[in-house]
Amino acid sequence: MVNGLNLLFQFLDSFAFIVLAAAGLAIIFGIMGVINLAHGEFIMVGAYATTLANIRAGLPLPAAMLVGVLVTAGFGLVVERVVISGTVPNALSQRFLGRKVIEPLYDRLADSMVATWGLSLIMVQGVRITLGNSLDQIGTPLGNIAYSGFSYSTYRVMLAAVALGVLALTYYVFTRTEYGMRARATIQDEDTARALGVDTERTYMTTFAIGSGLAGLTGALYAPTITMVPGLGSSFLVEAFVAVVVGGPSVVLGTTLAGGLLGAINATVSNVLGTFFGRIALLVTAIVMIRFLPDGITGFVETLRERRQEGA
Amino acid sequence: MTDGLTNRRGFLASSAALAGTALAGCSGGSASGDDTLTLGVLEDRSGNFALVGDPKHKASMLAIEEINNDGGIDGKQIEVFDPDPQSDNQRYQELTRRAINQKNVDALWAGYSSATREAIRPIIDREDQLYFYTTQYEGGVCDKNVFAVGPTARQQLGSVLPYLVEEYGPKIYTIAADYNFGQLSADWVKVLADENDAEVIGEEFIPLSNSQFGSTINRIQSAEPDFVMSMLVGANHTSFYEQKASAGLDVPIGTSTAMAQGYEHRRLDPPAMANIYAGVNYMEEIPTNRNTSDGGFVDRYYEKFPDAPYLNEEAENNYFSIYMYKKAVEQAGTTEQPEVREALESGITYEAPEAPDGESIKLDGATHHVDHHMWVMRADDQHNVEAVDDRVIPETFLSETVGCDLTQEDEETQYTPQDFYEEAG
């Protein structure tokens, strides 16, 4: 006997978690061709900054969350300049050695994975050394919705609306702003874009900062619901990567569809068979998708469209 | 970087201990020459188990410093081999080999999780190394070289479950971590439910990687149990308590894992842990004189480690077992391991902080387990913790049900409840 409201709330909860976990990763991967294995740790930076701003500095929760987003975006900017593009070390080596030492990690999938994985290890241990094994946790605000013997956390249901808002905003930024146009031009053909006067370097930098900021937002939003330990980012990784694989190349549409599909599968299976099978279903879905739709949902749609055009 | 720091800290701690001993040597002059013995202490100070492993390391250092300041063991000063195993079982195996073969440790304390214990037990048994495992665990290890001095699932759950049946009713819902420890603990809940005329009406095992509990919470609500037994483990699972509180699930919860080890009642915002009952042999708030009085265990711990976040269950187990080892060596008159083992098997007792005045806890020679003084500790909606029940609960599974007697027969086995109870399995 499936309770409809339970299922609905579990779906919204799961949808929000998947979309928010994946958003920053999808942008950085989709636009820069960088697989950021430190994505979970960017989320951790957002969660830690939010918690510290709220508990230690006494800021109200929404302001603390804004701090979390800005700190993570700023941190992302530094990482992009130092590790991903290598601009800072290259400028130094140019001055002292007379040559560049670092090749940017754009579109070097395997290399970017190793570099960001190393970064994630440094970040987890660094936080453990400086801030200890755990932080006090903020309580979840907003109480609960009660209905016929059941209840669900209002805050977690609300996150679904926030997730939709994030998707809408991302869509707006990438389709309706000048930055978005430059970013899309850079993905499509970097050389031509540069020839037309797009500062691709700067586009990459901004994109990485935006992606990091979104990871920070995820951390900020989930800070009141999860345990504050240095390794907290790893609990987002499975959902994030599965969603990016399932979603495919189109960032906004892909993430939305992946969140909808995976959220529905995860919520339904968890509801009927339990948490354990819910996670199995998530992973099985990823395997099936990689086998039959290697380009994800949006890649598949794209192929269909191309075929139809050829046929016409 | 961690290594550098922790080692430096470790170095500072041990040089402080040495300085202390040097002073004691000057004033008391009781130390008999430069004779020393070496204890291996492998406890996690980084990685997954750092949160719960670090207090074990600290309390071990406290015991060793106290003993050294007091003239050592039988006149011998204690030296420590204590690298950080970083919550990594492979590193544990390496370090265990190094401790035994290169450092020739006289006794070894090592490991937080049961997985770690099982990873190094073959090495321990091959080398016949005297070994103390101090974490509360699923129980059933009957091994001639292993002294499992933490409370077992039967002791922990056996203290809190009967209390909750009495207090709230017989319908139990179990949630447990989906691995060896959680599965066996859930079996013990079934055995104990049967013994206390209660019934397990639902059961869910949660993968360790899961941190989202929406569907679990709904499932508990739809089963309407009188109370929940929770054997959740690790940082991901800790999120359950905040999530169930924000979802408005206010059913009482009994646990053998929360609060006493990872001090969730200090880290989480109230009232996440309200109405949670922990069945434990020790936590910082245990109201005994030895524990909380001026100059008691808690005072001494924070005097040595002012910045320590908490003094947890396993920390006390490390502390008292080092003192038990001291008694055994002094009784045996040697650090030769077979003789020390025999002395430990003679029924050593110690006035541990967990036991009230006039009482001590006893190491059972036949099973190498401890008859603990167990406490049921309840957190209220402000996260104040108070004792609501306490009594001595002997280890009975190995001694009565299995019939393990290591003084008569050398064994290296772990027994499980499925082998002996119909309800389990």
From TrEMBL, chain A:
Membrane topology: Multi-pass membrane protein
Keyword ATP-binding annotated: no
NCBIfam families recorded: urea_t_UrtB_arc
Membrane spanning stretches: 15-38, 59-79, 155-174, 204-224, 236-264, 276-294
One family name in Pfam for this protein: BPD_transp_2
Subcellular compartments: Cell membrane
Gene Ontology BP annotations: amino acid transport
PANTHER family reported in the protein's UniProt record: ABC TRANSPORTER PERMEASE PROTEIN, BRANCHED-CHAIN AMINO ACID TRANSPORT SYSTEM PERMEASE PROTEIN LIVH
Protein name per UniProt: Branched-chain amino acid ABC transporter permease
Lineage: Archaea, Methanobacteriati, Methanobacteriota, Stenosarchaea group, Halobacteria
An example Gene Ontology CC term for this record: plasma membrane
Keyword annotations: Amino-acid transport, Cell membrane, Membrane, Transmembrane, Transmembrane helix, Transport
Top-rank taxon, per record: Archaea
Protein family (similarity comment): Belongs to the binding-protein-dependent transport system permease family. LivHM subfamily.
Gene Ontology molecular-function annotations: transmembrane transporter activity
Automatic annotation (TrEMBL), chain B:
Domain of life: Archaea
Keywords, comma-separated and alphabetical: Signal
Gene3D superfamilies in the record: 3.40.50.2300
Pfam families the record matches: Peripla_BP_6
Leucine-binding protein domain ranges (all copies): 36-382
InterPro entries registered for this protein in UniProt: Leu-bd, Peripla_BP_I, TAT_signal, Urea_ABC_transptr_substrate-bd
Official protein name in the record: Urea ABC transporter substrate-binding protein
